Amino acid sequence: MGTLRTVTLNPSYDDHFEVADLTWGGVGRVVSYRSQPAGKGVNAGRTAHHLGIPTCVYSLVGTPDLEDFSARLTAEGVEHRLEPVEATTRHNLTLTQVEASTIAAHTVGDGFHLPDRSAADSLFGRLIQETEPGDVVTLNGSLPAGLPPEIWRDLARDVADAGARVVADVQFTALARVVEAGRITAAKPNEEELLALPGVGRDLPRRDAVAVALRTLADHDVEFPLVTLGPEGVAHLADGVVRLSWCPVEVPRKSVGAGDAFVAGLCAALLRPGGPAPVDLGLATAAAHVAGLERADLRRQVAVNLGLIRTVEGLGSL
Ligand SMILES: Nc1ncnc2c1ncn2[C@@H]1O[C@H](COP(=O)(O)OP(=O)(O)OP(=O)(O)O)[C@@H](O)[C@H]1O
Ligand SMILES: [Mg+2]
User: Fold this and answer.
1) d(CA 59, ligand 1 centre) in Å
2) What is the pTM (predicted TM-score) of this model?
């Protein structure tokens, strides 16, 4: 089997506080706390590792955090290559209240501001050197300030030249640029992100915007054009037909990172042909993540979820 290689240029620590008796301006109680190395590719790589897929995470990281970030990934068994930059790694905050099942707040820190692209180029050099035909490489998340939006497109071309497949989960102008590479296996904007694609205007009704986004991706030879729609599932094109698929979650606990879990499942299926379809494994994995599961629990739930997936032709009631 090939290896999944994820690329993150704007990593973070995700700090999750679970609190009780929260009153703004008052004194509450911290029930649990966890701080994890994160960033979209780090998250996707971790989930793929939990699915049993050979994975290597490539990421920039702040120099002061290099040792710690690396040690934590090692402790989790997640293989990684880190390229230091002269900055500290941002911290994102997720706050949940024990009294409620949903997240109370999710706040995201400012990413890196880089003087030039040299650190990214070193990271990419290492990635291309290690990439083998049959691997899947994911381009994940936002670009640090100071990097040009073409950077993901150029990397996509180099990855394709190395014989590996590219899955893009990128945003804004970088999304419009990356599809120009013309050799993308899958791209999965969410409903906000699809607005960056050519031809998709804010004035379009919701279902038209999704349909135009899918056609635009297909016109750029994206093999799996996808738009993820949160709890409503994923819109996709198969044999030229627009479909909507979803996987229900009884008690949703964690919507943050659902897209990263989707990418992990999708790539796992690309690397294990003959098993579930990429869209199905993406949905099943995202649903298990949203249910709050990890590791062996996540794997077990993915198997169950594969039997719960529903698909309709068209975009349903969207
Ligand atoms: N509440 C939910 N119930 C069931 N499935 C969900 C729910 N929320 C998300 N999902 C699943 O996760 C997938 C990705 O979610 P979403 O569209 O929110 O991604 P995203 O915005 O890229 O998320 P992120 O960037 O935070 O990882 C959806 O296509 C769906 O399959
Ligand atoms: Mg996303």
Assistant:
1) 23
2) 0.97
Burial of 263 (0-12, 13-18, 19+ CB in 10 A): buried
Both tokens of 193, joined, read 């992100």
Ligand 1, CB cutoff 6 Å, lining residues: 190, 228-231, 233-234, 249, 252, 255-260, 262, 283, 286-287, 290
Q: Whose CA is nearest to atom 22 of ligand 1?
A: 259
Encode pLDDT of 23-66 as tens digits: 889 999 999 999 999 999 999 999 999 999 999 999 999 999 99
Other CB atoms within 10 A of residue 104 CB:
14
- 178 within domain boundaries: yes
pLDDT score for 90: 98
User: Which structure tokens are listed for 204?
Assistant: 């379009």
CA nearest neighbour of 7 among 161, 119, 145, 163: 119
Say which ligand is closest to the CA of 190: 1
Q: Compute the distance from residue 257 Cα to the ligand 2 centre, in Å.
A: 7
Average pLDDT, the chain: 96
Residue 163 domain-assigned (yes or no): yes
Tell whether 236 is covered by a domain. yes
Domain assignment of residue 318, yes or no = no
User: What CATH number is associated with residue 174?
Assistant: 3.40.1190.20
**Ion ligand 2 contact residues with beta carbon within 5 A:** 259
The set of residues, in sequence order, having a beta carbon less than 8 Å from that of 73 and lying 6+ positions away, is 37, 42, 57, 79, 80
Question: Whose alpha carbon is nearest atom 15 of ligand 1?
Answer: 230
> Is residue 237 predicted with pLDDT exceeding 70?
yes
Maximal CA-CA distance, the chain: 57
Give me ligand 1 centre to Cα 256, in Å: 8
Domain count, the chain: 1
For 308, the 3-state DSSP assignment is coil
| Dist. CA 171 → ligand 2 center (Å) | 8
How crowded is residue 93: how many other Cβ atoms within 10 Å of its Cβ? 14
CA-based R_g, the chain, Å = 19
